[in-house]
Specification:
Chain lengths: 111, 114
């Protein structure tokens, strides 16, 4: 059974800092990995999707990397802003179409 | 592209009542998923459809839960004889069939059982 762990559970940083969120998964036989953002009381917004054959994906100030063999992914956020404050979720698709999620990292960026 | 739409946004009901949620996926997406999320947890998979066929159901989906997607477009999730433990956010997502397609989520229906 696939298990996904996200570290840290919560993170508080001042505006402008670069930061890294970590995601690990137990079964490396994955199809793809997706990073989401969730604002309080809202649904999930897809940020980046990395296929199992890819090493990284970039979108604006976000960069996600994938090391499938070691079961790890990182989400790098450059020059953080207060608007980045949200919960960030990592989800793994193990080839059965459904996603297995971690519990998320709650990020607070203070002005 | 109007995104995934879920109704109602909030539902408050008494224990023992039946509730039904609706999900309208992105129009060209033929896969539709239901997840449940409780406070402080990531979403957990409940069930998914490809067109009108329900292809997989989680063990979390007890006999009191039923999902349908009769014409391969919108979907409904019904919970019968609700229990306190059913209080959660119910999320719907959709995607196309191609393997590299991301899942797009709606804003969810928050269910509160009194």
């Amino acid at each position: 059974k696939q298990e996904v762990t996200q570290i840290p559970a919560a993170l508080s940083v001042p505006e402008g800092e670069n930061l890294v969120l970590n995601c690990s998964f137990t079964d490396s036989a994955i199809y793809n990995l997706q990073w989401f953002r969730q604002d309080p009381g809202k649904g999930l917004t897809s940020l980046l999707l990395i296929q199992s054959s890819q090493r990284e994906q970039t979108s604006g100030r976000l960069n996600a990397s994938l090391d499938k063999s070691s079961g790890r992914s990182t989400l790098y956020i450059a020059a953080s802003q207060p608007g980045d404050s949200a919960t960030y979720l990592c989800a793994v698709n193990s080839g059965y179409s459904t996603l297995t999620f971690g519990k998320g990292t709650m990020l607070l960026v203070s002005p | 592209d109007t995104g995934v739409s879920q109704n109602p946004r909030h539902k408050i009901t008494k224990r023992g009542q039946n509730v039904t949620f609706r999900c309208d996926p992105i129009s060209e997406h033929n896969r539709l998923y239901w997840y449940r999320q409780t406070l402080g947890q990531g979403p957990e998979f409940l069930t998914y459809f490809q067109n009108e066929a329900q292809l997989e159901k989680s063990r979390l989906l007890s006999d009191r839960f039923s999902a349908e997607r009769p014409k391969g477009s919108f979907s409904t999730l019904e919970i019968q004889r609700t229990e306190q433990g059913d209080s959660a956010m119910y999320l719907c997502a959709s995607s196309s069939v191609t393997g590299d397609s991301p899942q797009h989520f709606g804003d969810g229906t928050r269910l509160s059982i009194l």
